[in-house]
Amino acid sequence: MKLQLWRNATLELNIDGISVLIDPMLGEKASLGKFPMTDNELLNPLTDLPFGEEELIAKLAKTDAVAVTHLHPDH
Asked: What is the pTM of this model?
């Protein structure tokens, strides 16, 4: 098993060759703006992904499933 934190709540879980993307937030840093119904003025996502667009595309192509554990405007 391998678990990789991409950012915030976004994780990639690999188990026996199966790749699951958990709570994907894939937009560029600050591309989603402020979240509604919060007092937080920060623009989301708060950080860049830890890899570039080419690697993101490659990772998404290998993703077998997506799990969403909670509802937000980002996923």
From this structure: 0.83
Place of tokens 């992904």: 49
Q: How far is CA 60 from CA 5, 13, 38, 45, 72, in A?
A: 15, 12, 30, 18, 20
pLDDT at 33: 85
The DSSP annotation for the chain comes to -EEEEEETTEEEEEETTEEEEES---SPTTSSBSPTTSS--PPBS-S--SS-HHHHHHHHHT--EEE--S--TT-
